[in-house]
Amino acid sequence: MAKPNAVPLIQTEPGGAPPGQQAAFTLLADPATYGPGTGPVTRIDTHISAIFLAGERAYKIKRAVTLPFLDFSTPDRRRDACRTELEINRRTAPELYLGLIEIKRDGNGVLSLDGAGETIDWVVAMRRFDQDRQLDRMAAAGLLTGAHILALAEAIACFHDEAPLRPDHGGQAGIRTVIDSNAACFARHVPAIFTKDQAERVTQNTRDWTSRLAALLESRRISGRVRRCHGDLHLGNICLIGERPLLFDAIEFREDFACIDTFYDLAFLIMDLVARDLPVFANRLLNRYLELVADADGLAALPLFLSLRAGIRAHVLAEIAHKGGPESMRDEAQRYMTLAEKFLSPPQPRLVAIGGLSGSGKTSLARSLAPFIGNPPGALVLRSDVLRKRLMGVPPETRLPPEAYRPDVTEATYESLMAEAETVLAGGFCVILDAVFARESERACAHALAARLGAPFQGLWLESETALRAGRVARRTNDASDATPEVAARQDHYALGRMDWDRIDSSGPKDATQEAARRILRI
User: Fold this and answer.
1) Which domain holds residue 419?
2) Same-domain pairing of 16 and 123
3) Rounded Cα distance, 127 and 89, in Å
4) What is the pTM of this model?
5) 373-384 in b/e burial notation, b at 16+ Cβ within 10 A?
6) Which residues have C-beta within 8 Å of that of residue 420, sequence separation ≥ 6?
C-alpha cells in the first residue's frame, strides 16, 4: 500500500511543525546551521516528514505525529524509523543516503547538528540531486524517453529479484487489508468528494476480484512473489543520476505496506504512467519487465492491483483537498476514483498474431499496437525470440549459437509461446504474438488457441522485399533477434503454405504499416 504522502505539499517558509519540534524545524530551516556559503533553504512537507534542501545536501526529519498507520510520537521511534529508512533505501540508492545526524541541545538550550548535549531528534542526511531529474517532473516536461523506461524496467526487475522473500505477508489477506483501508479512507470523503454509490461500488468490486483471485494470490505468496519491495513506487520516488534510474524513498514505517506482491509493487508505477496519459510508456514498462521476469501469471491480478493503487491516490488527494489543498485536488481525486473503477472493467481478452520473415517489422508493429489493445496498460507482447532465449537460460539480448535454432528447439519455442499466451488470455489479458509463423501449422495453432478460449483472433502477415528486410536486420543493435542478413535472405525460400492472415505491405514508413494494421484491428 502506498504511504499517504505520495503527493507532497511544498513550502519554503518555516512553521507548521508538530508540537515540540518547532525549534528543530527552525534549526533546519536556517542557512547558518550548515555553514558559510549555504544559500536559501527550501522545505518540502509531506504528511509524515519534512525535507530541508540546503546546499548539496537534503535533511529529512520525521514529524512527531501519530496516524492510523504509524507512530512517530517519540524521539526513539523516529530514530528507529530513520535507521530503517537508511537501511532499506541503500539497497537501491546508496549514493543518495549518506547517514544519520543527531539534533543536539546543549545546557543553554541551543540546538545544533551533531554538536554537544542531549539528542532530541534525528535526521536522515542525503545527497541532493537535481529535482528536474525526478521522473515525475520529467514526465510533466515531456522529457521522459523510451530508453528511460527500458532502463527503469531493468532496474526494477533486478531489485525485485534480489529483494528478500516475505511469505509471512501479502496474499489474499494482505490485499483485503488494503481494501479495508481504502474503504475507510473513501468514507471520510463521502459525500464531499466521492459519492456513496461510487465508493461502495469500487470497494465491492475489489472485494469480488480478490475472492476470484484468492487461489492465485496465495499461490504467489507461497511461491516467492511476495518480497520486501519498495512499496511506494511512483515516478516521484525515482530520479536519474546520469542516465541511471534510482529508486528512493521506499516505505520504512510498516512492513505490511512494503512486504507485498512484486506485481503490486510494479502496479503503482504502471498506474502512475496511465494516469499521466502515457500509455505507451506504461505498456513498454510492463512488457520489458516481463521479458526479464518470467511472471506472466501475475497479469491476471494486475487490474485489481491497478485499481487499488488508483484508489489509494484518490483518497490521498481527497485528504489533501480536505485539509485546505487547492480546489483542483478535488477534481484529481475524483479522476483517480473513476480510473480505479475503470481498471476493474477490462474488455474481453483478444489474441493478435503478427507474422513475417525476419526484418519485416513485426516487433516494431507489435510494440506500437500493444498500448491500444484492451484496457490500459494494453496487451502483452510475447516474442518468440525472447522465449527462445528463456528456454536456453540466457538474457534476451544474448546471442545464441546455431544449434539453438535446430527444428526441435524451434518447435519447443512455439509450444512455449502458445502455453504462455494461453495463461495470459485465460487470466483476462490481451496478447500479441510476435514470431515468424512461417509454417501453416504454426499459424493454425494460434487460431485454434483463440477459438478454444473464446477470444477474438486476428492474424497479420507482414511482407517486404528481401533487400529491405536484410538492411533492417543489419542495422539492429541490442536486440533479442539473432537473425542476420544471410538468414533473412534464405527465408525467401520458405514454403509458407496457404496464407489466410491479412497481408500488409511493410516496406514503407512505419506509420503507414501501423495505420494499415490499426484499420484491420479497428483500434
Assistant:
1) 351-521
2) yes
3) 13
4) 0.92
5) bbbbbbbbbbbb
6) 296, 382, 387
